[in-house]
Amino acid sequence: xxxxxxxxxxxxxxxxxxxxxxxxxxxxxxxxxxxxxxxxxxxxxxxxxxxxxxxxxxxxxxxxxxxxxxxxxxxxxxxxxxxxxxxxxxxxxxxxxxxxxxxxxxxxxxxxxxxxxxxxxxxxxxxxxxxxxxxxxxxxxxxxxxxxxxxxxxxxxxxxxxxxxxxxxxxxxxxxxxxxxxxxxxxxxxxxxxxxxxxxxxxxxxxxxxxxxxxxxxxxxxxxxxxxxxxxxxxxxxxxxxxxxxxxxxxxxxxxxxxxxxxxxxxxxxxxxxxxxxxxxxxxxxxxxxxxxxxxxxxxxxxxxxxxxxxxxxxxxxxxxxxxxxxxxxxxxxxxxxxxxxxxxxxxxxxxxxxxxxxxxx
Length: 362
Ligand code: PMP
Description:
By secondary structure, the chain is of the alpha/beta class. The chain has two domains: 18-40 and 271-360, Aspartate Aminotransferase, domain 1, CATH 3.90.1150; 43-268, Type I PLP-dependent aspartate aminotransferase-like (Major domain) (Aspartate Aminotransferase, domain 2, 3-Layer(aba) Sandwich). It has helices spanning 10-13, 43-52, 65-75, 88-99, 115-122, 140-145, 169-178, 207-213, 241-249, 258-269, 271-294, 315-324, 344-361, and strands spanning 30-31, 82-85, 105-110, 126-131, 151-157, 184-188, 217-222, 235-238, 306-309, 327-328, 330-332, 336-340. This is Aromatic amino acid aminotransferase.
């Protein structure tokens, strides 16, 4: 008789691996593969963290009360409308754990953030990926058409990682209008601070404004990008208190560690200074996008801290060309290459490699 073995869930066995941006090796000296903020934490943030280190024998505040209060104040919401977690990925997992039962469907755009299919499967739900439009935007009509009586939630990503476009107010409202009252919409705004598009006819969706009107909308935010705290792992969600209390119930207890809590709080206090850095990154993004387009590249609207090369099957070859110049980027097989915006010198190398690649391809 075959020996019995501990069996993992089938859904877990077939999970795609989350592939993080590798650390630069050998001659690689520019890491532009994980959409990180190129600037180190502000000295006042480092000082707050080192002060807090003296109390590491104690558990942190379980619900991160002071941080939650500061976030609520910033958005003009109640404290019971905010839940924090160990990065926004962990918050996403607790949201899906609170919502999904076996057989429930979660609709999301694809290609988008690679944690979505994994988090949906971990929650025991069925993922329904909906291909993006050729210009890297969400295919709103197709997402609406994908909704079935089993749909529990729709995930939206604005700006979309890895392609770059932001969702418009009209697009988010159209999705909400098409959904039954019991389907939640999670708008992932990980890169929202980098959005600069100003189009009076088609304004970018203001998640916080829509949240006030529609109880089905939940926003996902992070301290990893604009606030530059990726290494400490702090993310949060905003939504109606009835939902948020469910998300808290499924979160890991003490999920945001003590150092992360003080660093995030100090970063909120230094908000203006950090947003000046965001402005500098946005200026660099605009310079890189304009330079690439002038070289003849077809670069979609870039509203995050990264640019997307939609090169399809050439993704691996283009990523190798960057690697040979010491720049680590993120290829997505069959789709394209995502390159984060770094400091000026790194971006200059990106422009030079892209120009050379195009010249050799023509
Ligand atoms: N959402 C999107 C769209 C992202 O690209 C990322 C990070 N790459 C996250 C969420 C996760 O961020 P965090 O570090 O807060 O887990």
